[in-house]
Amino acid sequence: MLFRSMLQYRWQDAIALFDRALRDRVDPWTLANLGNCYWKTGDLDQAEYCLRGAVAVAPDFTAARLGIATVLHARGRFEDCLQELDAAALTDAGDIHIDSRRGCALLRLERYDEAQAAFRRSAERAGIFSYPRLIEFDRAAWDTVCGGAQIPAHPQAVFSLGNVAGTAGHVTLISCDPAYVRKFGFAFMRSFAERARPAALHLHIYDPDPDIIEEVRGVAGDCSLANFVVTTEASPFPENLPRQRRAYYACGRLVHLGRWLQEYARPVLSLDVDFIVEDRLDTIVAAADGYDLALNPRAPVDSPWLDIIANIIVANPTPAAIDFFSAVRNYTLNMVRREPESWLVDQTALYCVLVMKIGRAHV
User: Which 3-state string (H, E, C) describes 82-114?
Assistant: First the structure.
């Protein structure tokens, strides 16, 4: 029951079960797991209390010290986080999570070279794919993203209603493969038509099957979408590379976003396809007024691959935003090609390019 609750992300159920277990016997493993569950729910006070209790019972319990470091990082106490990691390294210096967490704290402290070195040590020790393999923000990385990449062909429209290019206001963008169009996209289209019409909607489909365009056409007609365009593309990763193909489906919109900004010459609101529109979307777009783009930050902070949640992106058609998304495109393509097992490339690319452009001021 304990593991089932944790695996299903039922953190409150897991908390109740661990709490009940502690009434019978206090042990560091249960305390640490209870602390991690509290951390998952955002209760940092209880998380730190339980994890410190685990270390008090078992001072050499590396996982509990890593948990404390994670909570301290979430509180913004990055120097204290590093001290806790130093203590963990005294008993288990080879644990790959120590350098991974160290890199996250050093990055927040703007100690960029040390941070990248820590991420590389963690990745080398892991031997298999781990998220630190995606983290690069040194001058060599900047030169790579500025140098370009083998860019897929720009998608072409295959179906449209109304006049998306000429509609006032922003364009809402969703993208996915045919399976997700059927699972989530049709519901999004219906909710958009009900709540956001006559705003413009752009649906981008990866690797369309023979029936999906006609199905989309039917749903669009049924819900009377007024300004709607569908584009498609063949993934640059064939079926025999399923992991890279799936990763591209998750981040392909970033590959084309700069070009779409240029084409539309007005704001683009990129949303996850599994959203349901419950109100007009103008207020989200208005949050980026006067800025090049607006991103959705994670709270509390955790790591470069999680700290920007890529489910909502507002991009204005400024030269800086177009330049930013060109760099993000190249970072994304280079990483998916280099790392066949990669995931969360979209969030990592957004974060690392921001670090290179603003934090490290390479340009």
Answer: HHHHHHHHHHHCCCHHHHHHHHHHHHHCCCHHH
pTM score, two decimals? 0.93
- Note the maximum CA span of the chain: 68
The continuous run of DSSP H or E covering 176 comes out as strand 171-176
CA 42 from centroid of its chain's CA atoms: 19
pLDDT tens by residue, 247-258: 999 999 999 999
> What's the pLDDT score for residue 22?
84
Q: Are 209 and 180 in contact (CB under 8 A)?
A: no
Q: What percent of the chain has pLDDT over 90?
A: 82
3-state secondary structure 275-317: CCCCCCCHHHHHCCCCCCEEEEECCCCCCCCCCEEEEEEEECC
- Omega before residue 198 within 30° of 0, cis: yes
Phi/psi region, residue 265 (left: phi>0; alpha: psi -120 to 50; beta: rest), is left
Which one, of 36, 94, 102, lies nearest residue 64 by Cα?
Answer: 36
SS3 (DSSP) at 75: coil
Kindly tell me if the per-residue pLDDT of 41 is higher than 50: yes
The pLDDT assigned to 9 comes to: 63
